[in-house]
């Protein structure tokens, strides 16, 4: 299945930024997963560790919620096409690792990485934007990309069984609007950030729009788990 191409963030997702549950998927340099020709399997991500802290725990794995800054460059001429520090008021990016919220090369490049670690990674076109490129992001066809990454935090992912059970207060294996509403209130109180009064309702509506696929007013365990957990 194709991933989500980059899109302008909605006000609701801006106001929900940083929520540990992150029920609304973030689109961050995501691209369709594709193999470009028969040589794609032979191409790999090259990883250079620039800084490794003495305390390296926990190491990132598929499904973890990561917080990182990174700059993207074209390998052909070294020009910068992306800088996370110039977006979103300079806040580091939050995304779930290994589920296609970023290009496949970044999903690979940021595995087994620890908080405080810095890496320089080179990603071939087949694991980035391939033969099509991405004109809106100033990425030409068949472009090899270089990213300089600094990882700040590795947290348990929002789609874990533990997170689902925490929201599912009555244990009926589905999340009601009331249960998610209560969870949003608890998270808002916990992080203490100022939000517009309409933020709660907008985020709640967005969560159901994007996750309640059968429209029954509940988010089932199957709908909640948008990717297959390795441990399940």
UniProtKB/TrEMBL annotation:
Keywords recorded for this protein, A-Z: Calcium, Endoplasmic reticulum, Glycoprotein, Isomerase, Metal-binding, Repeat, Rotamase, Signal
EC number: 5.2.1.8
Reaction catalyzed: [protein]-peptidylproline (omega=180) = [protein]-peptidylproline (omega=0)
Xref: InterPro entries: EF-hand-dom_pair, EF_Hand_1_Ca_BS, EF_hand_dom, PPIase_dom_sf, PPIase_FKBP, PPIase_FKBP_dom
GO-annotated molecular function: calcium ion binding; peptidyl-prolyl cis-trans isomerase activity
Chain ranges of the PPIase FKBP-type domain: 63-155
Domain EF-hand: residue ranges: 155-190, 199-232
Protein name listed in UniProt: peptidylprolyl isomerase
